[in-house]
TrEMBL record, chains A, B:
One Pfam family in the UniProt entry: Amidase
Ranges where the Amidase domain occurs: 50-396
Gene3D superfamilies: Amidase signature (AS) domain
Bias type Polar residues, positions: 110-119
Family: Belongs to the amidase family.
Lineage, highest ranks first: Bacteria, Pseudomonadati, Pseudomonadota, Alphaproteobacteria, Hyphomicrobiales
Protein's name in the database: Asp-tRNA(Asn)/Glu-tRNA(Gln) amidotransferase A subunit family amidase
Top-level taxon: Bacteria
Organism: Methylobacterium persicinum
InterPro entries listed in its UniProt record: Amidase, Amidase_dom, AS_sf
UniProt-annotated stretches for the region Disordered: 110-134
């Protein structure tokens, strides 16, 4: 994979120019993307800043995120050739910091669950996951050092686990969603994909203006291992990855203990989909009203079902989520991080599904930061998920880096 | 003014058709808008549904709210002639319920504070307020029965007070902001303008799918009168309007008592602007980066200042807001509604300012529902503001209607 920290070190040392770093990406794309199909558009002649903490860093932008210089097509024929007026807030910020939005990456239609044609870089018969399919595949395949995705259920952490790259779904609204197509305003969260946890920390600090975001974290963190029994069991490969991550964390000095989640969290988990679908019915009201027949079957089905959800049921679900957030906040008095599965197992053997978000839904609803750490071992990648308290993105990254280092050592 | 309830009654009785109701608005616009200038675009041939709870209701849509059939120009030359692909969620919902988005109404650039050319319908030398200038003026002048605005500081309640119409800024995200240009994602709230409180309740129920939203409210409500001393004194006309509203509420059986707000609320009020400006700097990053010189001076100044705000100051401000929301929630254990000023006084004698939002900022930051009730008496309108607990939009409307009725009686 292409590492941001490595590219930046070479640029700082004068052995690589920003333009040269962008060319490395173009060469990788030319050589390998034919087998993957991660992109819907590539900028032939982008501005390449010479300065800034992200100078020389090419970024893949999920195609539900607005770009003024490239089409933004939402993974849907309804937006074929659509050109927004402005860059999304996160794209504008990336450019300000020197990054180059080089390409738009594939997305399931409106970031829902109808698969893309993108293939897993580790085995073309497997899904890369979704909805941020192209971003995860591009970084996992070493075509780009940084990509933007969004997560409403599990659309950042799951594809990162399937494609073998690091990723963060930050605290809710740490990165603004301005200029990002809405599916659920209470859930949609912009996330980052990169080669390793250090790359994520560097990029998140640059994007948010929060220098040293992962400094000052606990050196011997207390880690709660959580299996989310309410979401059914994981597959053996995911269980094995979690066990390897636990052992690595202990070797690195962390205090690791199993923990069952209080029932309020299971109750919130059960209601994630209701909140998502109720809001999607409103957010995509124009598309549903005027272009229902052009919607692919899964998102169309979600929007059909949305009409059956009453405001009272939605209000009740939000109250459950609110209660669970307070319970989770108290739980973080006892722990510095939660460690759990990123996905039920490796990428499924199929391009007909983007996989299952059941181990991601709760954390998206809680708005807490989640980091995928790839766990070396199997032919197909499997990751583990490190979760921090709301606003504790730096602590979550620090624990993720500790586990990543220990797994490599 | 044109009343939704009146128009709907005539349509139900068969004495007016939906198309006839739309024609009434066109005739009023032709006769009076030349002196006001409330519109930036009018649809010459809109679809006019025959059915639905809002059939025959023409709506003015603030020009930062996306419409597929009419340009959406954000009050800025940067968006001259811009045509979004889709309708905003609230516009789509209005159409689904039978309403006709007849016109786009003037807005200050990006819903900030640079005045529009719109004039107050009660005196053309006075501001209609802002940022939802055209929507407030159009309803206040009797040109339309319903209009959409947005409030980030005081941009719904203040212009409604200045233009003499009823308005509601509902609970945060009760009406989705999907397809609405963002200034501050933690604050921006879509609101409604109409002739009276009953019209607002009817329209809000239709837009949100919450039938009977204002039923079941307390019949002898406990009302806390709050003067927001931290925001300086109001002018005599606003004080007199508040006194008249208090007396009317007591005549109608309400329990009215003065109340000083706890210090946590003043602390939050002080930090509203910081949150607003920090987020605006990111939300309008593309406009600032690429078109700074095309921005009018006030919004440009706000964005210049935004760059000086640190993430740590923003985080601190959000913690203060969070704390204040909990204090306010407890306070609503003792009261059914808060009654306070809608604005410091009547509309200022000038078109160079949109007036002062200092009595509105706190409530926008708290996310609680606010209703403007016009208080008859003076030549230039003055309103009072009824505030409910978060999610208690129906209760706030019921108390506002009680005061409105008592003021008329």
């Amino acid at each position: 994979m292409l590492s941001i920290l490595d590219l930046r070190a070479r640029i700082s040392a004068g052995t690589l120019t920003p333009a040269g770093a962008i060319d490395l990406c173009r060469e990788a794309i030319d050589a390998r993307d034919g087998d993957i199909g991660a992109f819907v558009a590539i900028d032939p002649d982008p501005a390449i800043p010479e300065e800034g903490p992200l100078a020389g860093i090419a970024v893949g932008v999920k195609d539900i995120i607005d770009t003024a210089a490239l089409p933004t097509q939402m993974g849907s024929v309804i937006y074929e050739g659509w050109r927004p007026r402005a860059d999304a807030a996160v794209v504008s910020r990336l450019k300000e910091r020197g990054a180059v939005p080089l390409a738009k990456t594939t997305t399931t239609a409106f970031a829902s669950s109808d698969p893309t044609a993108t293939r897993n870089p580790h085995d073309p018969g497997h899904t890369p996951g979704g909805s941020s399919a192209g971003s995860a595949a591009a970084v996992g395949a070493g075509l780009l050092p940084l990509a933007l995705g969004t997560q409403t259920a599990g659309s950042v952490i799951r594809p990162a686990s399937f494609c073998g790259c690091a990723a963060i779904k930050p605290s809710f609204r740490l990165i603004p969603t301005v200029g990002v197509k809405t599916y659920s305003w209470a859930l949609d969260t912009v996330g980052l994909f990169a080669a390793g946890v250090g790359d994520l920390a560097y990029a998140l600090a640059a994007v948010t203006g929060r220098d040293g975001i992962d400094e000052g974290a606990a050196s011997a963190p207390r880690i709660a291992v959580v299996r989310q029994d309410f979401a059914d069991a994981a597959e053996p490969a995911a269980e094995a990855a979690l066990a390897r991550a636990c052992a690595a964390a202990e070797r690195a000095g962390a205090h690791v203990s199993d923990r069952a989640l209080p029932p309020e969290l299971a109750a919130a988990w059960e209601r994630h989909r209701l909140i998502q679908d109720f809001e999607a019915g409103q957010a995509l009201g124009w598309e549903y009203r005027h272009h229902r027949d052009a919607l692919p079957p899964q998102v169309r089905g979600h929007l059909d079902a949305s009409g059956e959800i009453t405001p009272a049921a939605y209000d009740d679900a939000r109250r459950h989520a609110h209660r669970a957030r307070r319970v989770l906040k108290d739980l973080f008095g006892e722990f510095d991080a939660i460690l759990t599965y990123s996905a039920p197992g490796p990428a499924p053997v199929s391009l007909a599904s983007t996989g299952d978000a059941r181990f991601n839904r709760l954390w998206t609803l809680m708005g807490v930061p989640c980091v995928n750490v790839p766990v070396p071992g199997d032919r197909l990648p499997v990751g583990v998920q490190v979760i921090g308290r709301f606003g504790g993105d730096g602590q979550a990254l620090a624990v993720a880096r500790l586990i990543e280092n220990a797994l490599r050592g």
